[in-house]
Each structure stands twice: as structure tokens, then as C-alpha cells.
């Protein structure tokens, strides 16, 4: 065997090991659940209509906002609704709010869902706006949630369903809701 053949084989193995390592990092829950690269970015402002009234995300400045993108047809979204309801109850009195944005293409599905499964938090659907808002935030998978701090900056991005009433999340929100 020549030295160049051995070098090519070692290089190929090293590249495959590097690719495997990168893939492992990207599928690790800790990577997907934190996305530190967006932490500190100003949350994009947008208009929402909740319970018949128009508001802007910026109207919630001073509160910790749990911005959840979901859809009525998304099984994981539906499964996490009771946890989001309990989270709303947990954070309401401490300056927190859960805000759901449905990405349903037909808001009649959203409205039907809410009749069947009432939610305790504010949620909205606007066929022409919600998809744009979710794309502006970089949402690619639902449910996807952004924790926005009291100054209107993104503190954390959570991809996929979450146990919002878990001990880990309770500890996180105790810290996030502490007045500085």
C-alpha cells in the first residue's frame, strides 16, 4: 500500500467521522431545544387579533411571552395544549402570558378546534398573516415556541412538543419570571 492510498483512506474516515459528529449534535435534544444563536434577538413585532380585539406583540412588552406556533391538524400541538393551559395558569400572576398563533390555512378549522378543546390562553388565527409571521420567525416545524423576555428579546426557542408543566420548565420559568 502506498502512502497516498493510506492518506486518502484516513482522510475519508476523518470526514465521515466529522459528518457523523455534526449530525449527532444537530439531532441532540439540547441543541434543538435551546438554539442559543437566536437568544437576545429582538422578537419580530406583528399584529394579532385575539378575542375580537387587535393587538401587537409589542403590547406585551414587560411580560414574559410564550409564543407558540401550532395548528389544529397537528397531533403534537393538540397533545401539548393541556400543558400550555397549565403553564398559562402558572405564569399569569407573575407577569407571563402564553400566546398561540395557529398556522391553519383555514381558520374555520381553528375555530372548530377551539369549540371542541377550549384553551386558557390567548390564541389567534389569520390565514393571510399567520403563515408569514411563523416564517418570519424561522419556524419550520410545529409546534414551535419562542420564549420572549420582558424587554421583547427572544430568550429561547423550543422546537417540537414540550412538557410545559415539567419540573425543568417550572424551574426555567421561575428564573425567567423573576423581576430584576
Word description of this protein:
It contains six helices and seven strands, in the order H-H-E-E-E-H-E-H-E-H-E-E-H. By secondary structure, the protein is of the alpha/beta class. The chain has two domains: 1-33; 35-176, Glutaredoxin (3-Layer(aba) Sandwich), CATH 3.40.30.10. It has a five-stranded mixed sheet with strand order 5-4-3-6-7. Strands 1-2 form a two-stranded antiparallel ribbon. The radius of gyration is 20 Å and the shape is elongated. The chain starts with a helix and ends with a helix.
Order of helices and strands: HHEEEHEHEHEEH
Percent helix among the residues? Answer: 40-55%
Estimate the mean pLDDT confidence: 84
Estimated share of beta-strand residues: 15-25%
SS field, number of helical segments: 6
Shape: elongated
DSSP E strands, number: 7
Q: Please mark out the parts with pLDDT under 50 across 5 or more consecutive residues, or reply none.
A: 27-34
The CATH homology group name of the largest domain: Glutaredoxin
CATH architecture of the largest domain: 3-Layer(aba) Sandwich
Rg computed from alpha carbons, rounded to a whole number of angstroms: 20 Å
Q: What structural keywords apply?
A:
6 helices, 42% helix, single chain, Glutaredoxin, elongated, 180 residues, alpha/beta, two-stranded antiparallel sheet, five-stranded mixed β-sheet
Short summary:
With 180 residues, this protein is an alpha/beta fold. The chain has 6 helices and 7 strands.
